[in-house]
Amino acid sequence: MKLFFTGATGLVGTRLVNFFINRGYDICLVTRDAIKAQAHFQSIVDQHSLDIIEADITFEGDWQEDAQDCDAILHLAGANIMQQRWTKSYKEVLRQSRIDSTRNIAAIAQNMLVCASATGFYGNQADVELTEKSVPGTGFLADLAQEWEGAAFGANCQVCCLRLGIVLDPKGGALQKMSPLFKYCLGGAIGSGDQFWPWISWRDLGPIVERVITERWEGPVNAVSTHQVSCSEFTEKLAKVFNRPSFLNMPRFLAKILLGESSSVLLSSQRVRAQALIDKGYEFKDAILDDALEELFSEN
Known about the structure:
The structure is a single chain. The protein is an alpha/beta fold. It has a domain at about 1-170 and about 200-225 and about 270-285: 3-Layer(aba) Sandwich (Rossmann fold). About 40% of the residues lie in helices and about 15% in strands. The protein contains 13 helices and eleven strands. It has helices spanning about 10-20, 35-40, 40-45, 65-70, 90-110, 140-150, 175-185, 200-215, 230-240, 250-260, 265, 275-280, 290-300, and strands spanning about 1-5, 25-30, 50-55, 70-75, 110-120, 130, 160-165, 165-170, 200, 220-225, 270. Strands 3-2-1-4-5-7-10 form a seven-stranded parallel sheet, sandwiched between helices. Strands 6-11 form a two-stranded parallel ribbon. It has a two-stranded parallel ribbon with strand order 8-9. Strand 1, helix 1 and strand 2 (about 25-30) form a beta-alpha-beta unit. Helix 1 (about 10-20) packs across helix 8 (about 200-215), helix 5 (about 90-110) packs parallel to helix 6 (about 140-150) and helix 9 (about 230-240) packs parallel to helix 13. The longest helix has 21 residues, at about 90-110. The mean pLDDT is about 95.
């Protein structure tokens, strides 16, 4: 089976490319910088067949023909939500990098499309338990996720949108940024700390996506663990990994001053239930946060 990747050099993409290569899949990926991608995956390129195409997928092009030749498309591309403050211009970057590219992917997808999305789809819904059937929220991220998924579901093939929680990986993303603070006793909850933070270990992403592809799942899937935790619980458990206290909390007003509107990512509460994964009988590698953090950092 041959898979076509966008966003392959990102945190999630890198893990998935390695997972599927090790499982014997053929991989074709599109990137804006082929030389950088070649270096990024050098160890794979030396031992496995990996096709790398240079193109900007926010525009139509020859890359679309290569995508059509594959058995499934994994669309993970999109500018980093937490890269900078959400100025008007950066909001447009976030939107274009997701919506324009997804429309171009959907226009040519023939077999199976797996598109990244986010639990930001649900907005801020306090302690309401949210399943794939729950109504979307409001706000910039919720609106963006709805438009993003809408573009994907416009494809004339089977489509699955993965609503990703915080992806736990010591080598990148939120966990890599937070870890130094907690190592030096500078970590703590943000805002009230009561808001729910949905999460998933990177070690579960590959097995989940493989089942999505091979069993041809359709519709949205909450890619989160079954262990629901608040921000306070999350930060306390992270501090425990380093045998440090978690007491230096960041007040809500300070988070808003430092991060602006993007602080909503950290302050919003999303008590997301992995209903589709539970219904499908998926067994998590890292189901409990305490164990997941211990395992992830011991591997790293």
